[in-house]
Amino acid sequence: MRQALGDDRYVKRYPKLIAEVLSPSTEKFDRGDKFEDYRQLESLEEYVLIAQDRMWVECRRRVKDASGERWETVVYGAGERVMLAGLKQILSPNKA
Q1: Which of 13, 44, 69, 76 is the most buried (most CB within 10 A)?
Q2: Distance between CA 15 and CA 29 in Å, rounded?
Q3: CA neighbor of 34 nearest in space, from 45, 18, 50
């Protein structure tokens, strides 16, 4: 990653999910370089981008299967229920 995590007690070292609220000044960075850095974290399973000006959520998920590993993107709009697989596993570990 571009910045070392160091010993900052406010930094989680093995996140499963990272959510970002997009703003006009940071959206390009959040979608590009920041995501490229985050995807290097082996523990990360979901990267969620949330629009602040409309009902829109983009969820990027790490998928591991027989063909290897890839990231897939699911976009949710107004009236749709956002499904976060990582939270489902945390909240219902026996039902995953």
Answers
A1: 44
A2: 20
A3: 18
Distance CA 57, CA 74 (A): 8
Residue for token digits 């219902």?
A: 92
> What is the bridge-based pairing of β-strands 46-50 and 17-21?
parallel
Among all chains, which residue has been given the structure tokens 């070292």?
A: 13
Q: Which of 26, 94, 38 is nearest to 71 (CA)?
A: 38
The predicted-structure confidence for 21-33, as pLDDT tens digits, reads as follows 999 999 999 999 9
pLDDT digits (tens, 9 = 90+) for 31-78: 999 999 999 999 999 999 999 999 999 999 999 989 999 999 999 999
3-state percent breakdown (helix, strand, coil) of the chain, nearest 5: 20, 30, 45
The token duo for 17 is 């999910």
User: Which tokens sit at 50?
Assistant: 């949330």
The whole-model pTM stands at 0.77
5 in Cβ contact with 38 (< 8 Å)? no
